[in-house]
Structures are given as C-alpha cells and as structure tokens.
Amino acid sequence: MNHGLETIAEIAGVSKSTVSRVINDQPNVSAKTRQRVLEAIQQSGYRPNQAARALVTRQTGVLSIVIPQAVAATFTDPYFPALIQSITLTANEHNYAIMLWVGNNAEEEERYCDRILKNGFFDGMIIASAVDNDPLLQRLVGSKLPYVLIGPPQAQVEYSVDVDNRAVAHEAVSHLLSLGYQRVGTITGPLHMGVSRCRLQGYYDAFEQTGVGVDETLVAHGNYDESSGYTAMTTLIERGTDAVFCASDTMALGALRALLEAHLRVPEDVALVGFDDMPFAATSHPPLTTVHQPIDELGRTATNLLISLIEGAPIQTHHLVLTAHLIIRHTCGAAKIA
Amino acid sequence: MNHGLETIAEIAGVSKSTVSRVINDQPNVSAKTRQRVLEAIQQSGYRPNQAARALVTRQTGVLSIVIPQAVAATFTDPYFPALIQSITLTANEHNYAIMLWVGNNAEEEERYCDRILKNGFFDGMIIASAVDNDPLLQRLVGSKLPYVLIGPPQAQVEYSVDVDNRAVAHEAVSHLLSLGYQRVGTITGPLHMGVSRCRLQGYYDAFEQTGVGVDETLVAHGNYDESSGYTAMTTLIERGTDAVFCASDTMALGALRALLEAHLRVPEDVALVGFDDMPFAATSHPPLTTVHQPIDELGRTATNLLISLIEGAPIQTHHLVLTAHLIIRHTCGAAKIA
DNA sequence: ATATAAAATGGGAACGTTCCCAATTATGGA
DNA sequence: TCCATAATTGGGAACGTTCCCATTTTATAT
Prior knowledge:
2 copies of one chain form a homodimer.
Chain A: H1 4-12, H2 16-23, H3 31-44, H4 50-57, E1 62-67, H5 69-72, H6 79-93, E2 97-102, H7 109-119, E3 124-128, H8 135-140, E4 147-150, E5 160-163, H9 165-178, E6 184-188, H10 194-210, E7 219-221, H11 226-239, E8 243-246, H12 249-261, E9 271-276, H13 279-283, E10 289-292, H14 295-311, E11 319-322, E12 325-327
Parallel strand pairs in A: 1-2, 1-3, 3-4, 4-5, 5-11, 6-7, 6-8, 8-9, 9-10
Antiparallel strand pairs in A: 10-12
Helix pairs in contact in A: 1-2, 1-3, 6-14, 9-10, 11-12
Chain A binds a DNA duplex through α1, α2 and α4.
C-alpha cells in the first residue's frame, strides 16, 4: 500500500512503468502482461492517485462553472440549472468532471476570486453570465487559464458563446407591434449586465424600424426575479400599457400575477412576451408566448469550445452566436385594435 | 519558474521550507523574513500547486455533490438548485470547493460510479436523494470515503440528514381530513425512492388515525415532474376526488393545470396540498397550501456534518432529522361539507 | 543460424509540495 | 561574558505518478 503503483507492480511481477502503461491504455505491453496487471489491479482494489497524476501531467480533467455573485440570488431561476445540467452532461461525455462556484454575496468579491483562482484543481472555466467589469474576468484576461464566457462578449474576452439576444428581442417586440398593440412596454433585466442591455436594445430596434417613437415611461427595470417582474408590471399598469416584452419568463410570471390581481385579462387587456422558454412557460395560464433560448446548445457549445481550448484543438470561431426564436403561445395575438 | 516554491525562496533569499511556512501561515518565521517572502510572492504572482500539495497532505479541500441518475431529469425542479446553493455557500464558508456530479441516464450506472470514485479529487461526498439500492451507495459502504446521504437513511448508511417526511405528510393529510374532505387522494413520487414511500406512509397514517379506510384507487403515482402531476390528476378526477396531497409542488402545479382544464375550481371543487414550498408555490394561482421543507438547513446541516466527518470532529448524531411544517395558503380550506 | 529491427520491459529522474530533523542564530539569565 | 534555551532556518526524504532512456526480449529477413 506504500507506493500504489509499486504494490501492483510487485503483485503482477512487473515494473511500475509497465503498470502505468496498462492503466493509461498505452501500447507496448504484451497481452499476457496486461492481463496479469489488470488482475492485480482488480484484486487489490487499487485506484490511481489523481493528485500525483495531476502533478506530473499538469492537468486535472476538471472544468469549473462559475456563476458570479451578482446573479447567484437568481439561482432560483431554472435557467442556471438547465445550463449546468447541459454543461455537466457534455463534460461527462468527454470525461471531464465539474467544479461549481456560486457567487456568495456575503463574501467580498476579491476573496471570492482568489479562492477560485488559487484552487487550481481545474483545467478551464466556463463563466455563466458575467456582470460588467467582473473582477474575475479582469483577473483572467492575460492569465494562461483557458476560459469561455457565456453571454455577450466583453472587451478583452477572447472566447464566448451567446445567443442573438438583440435580434430575437427585436423580433419579439416587432411581433407585438405588428399585432397592433399601441403601448408596448418592456421589463428589463439589470442594466449592468450585457444580456439585459442587448435585449433592451432589441426593443428599441423594433421601434426604430417602424418609425414609432419609444415612450420611455414604458421601460421598467427588474432583476430577473419573479417579484421584480410583479413590481415592474404594477408600475406599467399605472402608466397604461397594452403589451409588455419581459426579459425573462420568470419576470413574465411576476407580471402575469400583477395583471391577474389587477383583474386585467391576458392577452385581451394586456399581452405578454417572455424570454427563455422555461418549462413552466408552456404550462402557465395562459401559456406564455416567449423567446426560446437553446440553453442546452449553449452549454454544450461552450463546453466543447472550452475543451478544444484546453486540449489545443484548432478553434474556428472565437465568438459563437446561437440563434433563438420566438414561440407564439397564448399571451399575445389578440390585440384590441384601438 | 522551475520549482515554484524554490523560485520564491531564491528571490527572498531563504529556503523553500521557510516559504512553505509563510504560505501556510505557520509560526516560527521572523516578521522580517515573512515580509520578504510575502513580497516575493506578490511580485512573482506565484500560486501554489494544489496537486503537489494534495499529494502530500492527502486532502483536497473539495466536496462532491452527487445527484444520481434517477433524479437527474428532475433537475428542472427547483429543489436541487436550492439544495446545491445551500451546500455551496456552506462549503465556501469553510473554504471547501464543490464538485458536482449529475447522473447521466445515457451512461451505464457502473461506469458513472467508476468515474466519480476514481476521480479522487475530493475529500467527501454528499449524496442528494438516492434511489433504493443505489450502486454508488453500495460501493461507498465499507470504503473509507466520508459521505452523507440527504434523505431517508438506508441500511448500512452511517450518516444522513433528512426531513420528517412521514410525520409532516401525516399532518398535511390530517388537515385535509379535518376540513371535511371526503375523498382525499394522493399523488406520490416514484416508490423506489425512500422519500416517496415516507410521504405515502404519512398519507396512510392520517387515515389510520381517523379510522377511515383508504380508497386505494385514490393513490396515483407520479415521478416529481410537472407533467406526471398532470397525468395523475387527470386519473384522480375520473375516479372522483375532492382533495389531493401531492408529494411535490411541481406535481401540484401539474395537478392544478389538469383541474383548470377540467374546469374544476380550486379549492371549491378540489383542494390541493403540495410539498416543498418552492418559491412559485406562494405566487401560483391560487397560492398553494404546501409543506415547507427547510432546504437551506438541509444543505447546511449535511455539509457541516460532512466537514466534521472529514476533519475528524466529534459527531453527536449520525442520523439527523429536521422538521418541516405545513403552510396554509389558498388551495384548501373551503371544503364543501357533503 | 545470424544479423537486424521491432516490441516489451525496467530504472530512475522529474513534478512541487510538506514535514521531520538537524543546524544555526537570537534571547535571556546568571 | 558565557551558557542554556528558545526561536528561526535549511536540507532532504517522502508523496505516487509519468515519461524518457537504456536494456532486454521477441520477431523478421537474409
């Protein structure tokens, strides 16, 4: 039990070099020797010491997912779980394990970054949704650690995977406008996040295209929480709106609740469009018209990109953009023509 | 850059032993030497190699969370995200990092266990909800790896944290019965999971207490998915029910949908009680009466227990049971007295 | 059968830490 | 001033792998 490999070597009557070769499926081991070693491993329940291995190979076979502080509270949103699951499954396919870092608002940002960075037990990192000037990102730029950002690329960030937020938001709002809604508002995410700004920009784009001016009082801000959607919708109701584009399904749910309580019917009185196409969007009442995000593909693509980076495979595109699309259900489409 | 420690040692003009002492905050280093070493570390951006450290100390400072195959699909249920978040935050407080293993139904169970077990980059493991005869659990029993099970203790498992599922399910169903509902049914989780059986047992307990017999046709089975709740409820409607205890809020949501589509009012025609007290339970329409699970506490307790185990701290209780409680909202309480 | 090439094996130096123990230096009391 | 003691430092052997070479064995061609 002293030196793991050497115990096996002794049992099988070979050198530790040979045992190492067998373990790593390397060639140049005769069939009979390999067999003998395999049996020795079997009977002794030996398991290679990964730390020792990592020490010499300089790789761990582990990927990190980082969900920064700012959005950690939003972990109730099914978006992150879905993303994590997709990343995890893809990583598993390639025999990578996953480390998870969830931002802790109680901890100062610096210490949090330090802890991640000094951990050192992973080969690369996927940052799921970053805030502007994220300190982690700043520390990463110029470091040799491979990483991929999920979300709109920021300055200096070399690799990212995102959805065409702006274009599809544009599409969604255009749909609302084309249905004849007159006072189309929006509930945004926090504007210090690139995603939120992209989606808001799409909202403006739609108005610009039609030549109709935007009523700035119909732009309400949320933080991707259900309750923030509720609050924002309450404001919009006061200001008079007949259709609202929400930057997330979760906020749309909050908006729906506000409308119900105000005894406004959806979509007869107010139409609603969400963003994400979370599972509950299809089963809410009424079923939510929303933008379908290819979350699975997002996670899979980011993971594959990161693995390519780690393993030195050639990279075609540095900034990938996946396409989302509008799914029409029942929360819009019945505009009362004024 | 050759030997990390030695580079620093050279810059600071000391031995690597001393540098090691400084890094690990050990005593017996003079103030001025420590200062000099700290500066050397600062200026060179040196970061200790964790693999080397783990090799000699035989610990990694990493905890694993395992969500077995059987429930991986259920990852859409906010229960797991909440649990993960709680575990992660608690672990962080103690300077432990987290590895995440999500069961992959595409992979054979054996290989999946192997991958986890041979990874070896963690000091202990939290198993979140296990299936009967979970192969991972079987491999763990008798191994020296510390682990804690979240859920009802199984044979051989030495440490677990759970909620008093049976007692609180009993309470919930008794509440329904005491309100005068005549045909109280239940939608269970998959019965090869201990949790599901505990909750079902609580349902039986309530009837036993009142002396009323259970109508077995009112016991429908789901798998914790929204859609399975929908399907089960459809069956129960056919069979005639006026109140249903659901083993999860997510299934209750599905049940709600089925009732809505059948034009049955809640709670006037059929009452509903959920389980979990997920965020959406408070904001659903109508707000869901449900059992509040202390998920945060569950995660925190399990994590603290595991860390005690790892660090050899004394353990008071091997099997901890936290108490859940019923939260009355609006989906029951208006029984039509027959 | 022999020479030569190819395949299989073994030995041992890294990898970058920690930690024990020996050696050195500082401290304090007589 | 000097000795005993305590505090500080340094040296070097682990830890368990991988991987480069050198060596031995086996296969192949003449």
